[in-house]
Design goal:
By secondary structure, this protein is mainly α. It folds into two domains: 102 residues, DNA polymerase, domain 1, CATH 1.10.150.130; 185 residues, hpI Integrase, Chain A. It has twelve helices and five strands. The protein has a three-stranded antiparallel sheet with strand order 3-4-5. The chain has a two-stranded antiparallel ribbon with strand order 1-2. β4 and β5 form a beta hairpin. The two termini are 47 Å apart.
């Protein structure tokens, strides 16, 4: 990681910020960036940093800014916005030739929490495969359903409520690029997701095994509600029980959602593609659990490979 980035000697940090803001075309965004960068410059001046020409800006200056007392009372959303503003500034400095190194790609600081909340815990690729294997090897009649359900949650970033509403008719497994339609998700009439090849095979096996040709895709097998639609609570319990059987910590559907996106990033999907895949409005949301940036080639789902041995 480069130790520092040196600004051109014939321009001050104030002037550089003004030039950067001229590149922002959306007025609302420009006002937000202007406010955030002004706060940063005031911090530099108060801390005695040199703002004259030939000022040397380091990542440590920015880290000190976020560690300062004035930032401690701010909401996480405000901190993340200021993080985005400063990252934009660093990226602009590089792309316009004012600095030699792109430090924005190294820019991970305080607003990116080092301790993830329980809803955003991650498990490794090995543990993800173990989770599916444990579900498949269960002696119960629900082993095919549970293993397919878990693999689906790792591959398609949907919430339990949407999973519960899924029907067989939402699947199209016969076309060249199989997909699933998720109905009524967060205000949208429907959302379409590509399906990895391995998951398509599992879904075909799942529907044939239980004789599902219409209606609910994820069904209860218990005598009390046999054939009925699985509830979001039941889905959570399936994931939790399987994790405990696999010797993993207590996890839920959110863990599988975030783990799947991270696996895609690690396999080569770009962070922008995963942002789109997970339907995150802000890139900072994606950055909470992924810290890599690779060139986009195909759908993020194409990079998720959880295929195990055949049944």
């Amino acid at each position: 990681m480069p130790a520092q980035t040196t600004l051109q000697e014939n321009i001050s940090t104030y002037e550089l910020v003004d030039l950067c803001l001229e590149s922002v075309t959306v007025e609302e965004t420009k006002r937000a960036y202007q406010s955030d960068l002004k706060q940063f410059l005031e911090f530099l001046r108060a801390s005695g940093a040199d703002l004259k020409p030939a000022h040397t800006l380091t990542i440590s200056h920015i880290q000190s800014f976020f560690d300062s007392q004035q930032m401690s009372h701010l909401k996480q959303s405000t901190l993340n916005r200021r993080l985005a503003s400063l990252r934009y500034f660093l990226k602009w400095c590089f792309t316009t030739g004012f600095v030699e190194d792109d430090q924005s790609k190294f820019f991970i600081t305080k607003p990116i929490s080092q301790k993830l909340p329980e809803s955003r815990l991650l498990i490794s690729e090995e543990d993800s495969k173990l989770l599916i294997e444990v579900a498949r090897s269960s002696t119960g009649t629900d082993n095919v359903r549970n293993s397919t359900l878990i693999e689906f949650m790792l591959s398609v970033p949907v919430r339990r409520s949407s999973l519960s509403k899924m029907n067989y008719e939402d699947l199209d497994l016969a076309c060249d690029r199989p997909f699933v339609r998720i109905p009524k998700s967060r205000g949208a009439t429907s959302i379409f997701y590509r399906l990895p090849v391995g998951l398509v095979t599992r879904l075909k096996f799942h529907t044939e095994h239980y004789g599902i040709a219409s209606g609910p895709l994820w069904r209860s097998i218990s005598r009390r509600n046999e054939g009925g639609r699985l509830t979001p609570t039941s889905i959570y319990r399936i994931v939790r029980a399987t994790a405990l059987a696999a010797g993993l910590p207590e996890i839920g559907a959110h863990t599988l959602r975030h783990t799947g996106c991270t696996l895609a990033i690690e396999a080569g999907a770009s962070i922008q593609q995963v942002q789109s895949h997970a339907r995150h409005k802000q890139i900072e949301t994606t950055m909470v659990y992924v810290h890599q940036r690779d060139r986009l080639r195909d759908s993020a789902a194409d990079y998720i490979n959880l295929d195990l041995k055949k049944d």
